[in-house]
Amino acid sequence: MSDDLANDPQLIEEFVTESREGLQCVDEDLLALEQTPDAAEILDRVFRAVHSIKGTASFLNFPQLVELAHAAEDVLNGLRKGEFTAARHVIDVLLASADQLRRMIEDVAARTERQYDIAPLLQTLRAVRTPADGAPRLGSILVQQHVVGPTELAGSLREAAAQQTRLGDLLVNKGLATPEQIQTAVDEQSSSTNKHDATQLMRVDVAKLDHLVNLVGELILERNRLSQLHRSWTEGQIGTEDFDSALSNAVGRLTFVTDEMQVASLKTRMVPIDNVFRKFTRLVRDVGQNLKKEVRLVQRGAETELDKTVVEQIADPLVHLVRNALDHGIESPAEREAAGKPREGTIAMEAFQQGDHIIVRVSDDGKGIDPQRIADKALQKGLVTPERLKSLSVREIVDLIFLPGFSTAEQATELSGRGVGMDVVRTNLKKMNGTVQIDSAVGKGSTFTLKLPLTLAIMSVLLVNVADEEMALPLQSVCETLRTEKQDLHYLHGREVIRLRNGVLPVCRLGRVLHVAERAAAGGERVVVINVAGERMAVLVDHLLGQEQTVVKPLGSYLGHVAGIAGASITGDGRVRLIVDPAGLVTMALGTENPLPEVAP
After folding, report:
1. What tens digit of pLDDT does each residue of 1-12 get?
2. CA 33 – CA 540 distance, rounded (Å)
C-alpha cells in the first residue's frame, strides 16, 4: 500500500464499509441464484457489486484484489451471456471467491500487508468458464410454454452470447416473444428472496444534533400547550372565541417548529460531495499512468452538500464517467500534439446546487463522441435496427452508449469493454429520478451533466385522482399540466398520442396502466406531462388536486418491487397514498424495458 493511501484512513474506511456491504449482498444473491439460475435481476446485482469492488480496488492500488475480482467478474459475465448455467459448482467457486475477497478486505481494514496464494482459486474460476451442456432454465420454460421452439432457442442462445445480451431481451427484440411472456417465464422460475439491509453509519456534526434536540424540546412544549387547550375546552374553562384564537396560535407555532425540524433533520443527512470527489485524484493519476496518458483533474464545488443516500448512489456513476473519459475521451500525448492540443488532457468535475437539485458535471477536452462510430457499433452488436437508426437524431444516436452491453472497445479489459459502465450510470440515475445530458463535439471533448434531487426522503408531489384513488406524482418529473379535449387524442402506429404544440407525445392512461377502473372525465381530459431522463409522456388522470410536500415511506420487501410504484405516504386523515414511479410508468406504458435512449432536454 502506498504512503498516501496509508495516510488517508477515511478513504480506506469508506472502501472497506462499501465492500463489506457489497459482499454481504453477494452472498445472499449467490444463494438465491443457485435456486433460480436464470434470474437476470439477481445476476446483475452480483455482477455490479463485484464490478464496483474491482473498480475501487483498482484506483486504491490493491492488485490482488483487482485480479481476483476480475476473474470472478469473467465468470459472472459468462453467466450473463448464457455461455453456461449457474450450476452448484459454479456457485461454490463464486462463494469461495467472495470469502477470499472478504478476507483480503478485512486485512485492508487492519492495515496489514500480505501476499495471498490465489493461483488455485484463479485456476478454478477459469475452469468453470467452460460452457456447460443444456439450455438455461428460462429457455426450457419458454419451450414448455410453446413460446419458442427448441431450434429457435438454440440459435437465440448462440446469438445472445455473441451479442453479450440477455436471452429475454434478444427474443423480444427479434419478435419471438413478448415482454409479458418473458416476465411470465421469469416469474415461474424466480423465488422471492428476503434481503436484509446492512447497517449503515455516518458522521453527523454535533451542532446539527444539538439544534435538532432543541427543536424536539420545542415540539414537546407545543404538544403540552395543545393538551392543556384540550382540557380547558372539555372542562368548559374557555369560550368558543378564545378557543379558536388559542388553537390558531398553537397550530401556527406547531407548523413553524415542524418546518424547522424538517430542515434540521435533512441537514443531519447532508454530507459534502467532497467525500466522493476526493477519491478521483488517485483514480485519474493511476489510470492515466496505466494508459500512458498525461491527465490533470480539476474539481470545483466539492463543498456542495447533498443527502447521504444520493452521495452513495452517485459514486459508481461518477467512477464510470471518469474512467470512460480517461479511456475513450482523452487522447495520448502524441495524438493531442498532432491535433494542436496540449500534451496534458484535462478532466473537470463540478458540483453546485440549483433549486432543489444538485448539478454534477464531468467534462474532458478529449476527442469527443463520434456519432457515426456509435451508430456502427450499435448496429454491429444488434442493439438497434437499421430502420430504427434512420429515425434517430444525432443526440439520440449518441445516447445509445447508455444501452446495456454497448461498448466501442474491441476487447474487454480491466478498464472497459464489457458494456456495463454507462448502463450503471443510467440505472443509478433512474433510481434517484435523475437525468443525464451529453454535450459533445468531435475533436473538442464531452460534457456529462447529471441532475440529481437534493434529497430522497422528502418529496414535492403533484396530487392527482384516478378512479377515486388519490395518488402522487413526483413534482420534479412534472413539466406541465393542461386540459385537453378528446378530439385532441389520436392513434399513431397503434399507440395513443396527443398533439402538444409542435410535437407529439405518447399517452399513458394512469388508471389503465395501474389496473384501476377508468371513467370518463367531465369537461375534457386532465393531462400531466412528465419527463423521465429526457423521455416525455402525457399522463391522463381524472382530476388534479394540487401540490404538497410529503415524506416518502418504503413499501417493504413484500410490495417493494411493484412496477410503477415508488413508495407511499400518509395523508392528513391517516389514509395511504401511493407515490407513482415516473420511470417505471414510462417503462410500463411503452411496454419495453429500455423504450428509448435517455437524454435530458
Report:
1. 444 544 567 778
2. 39
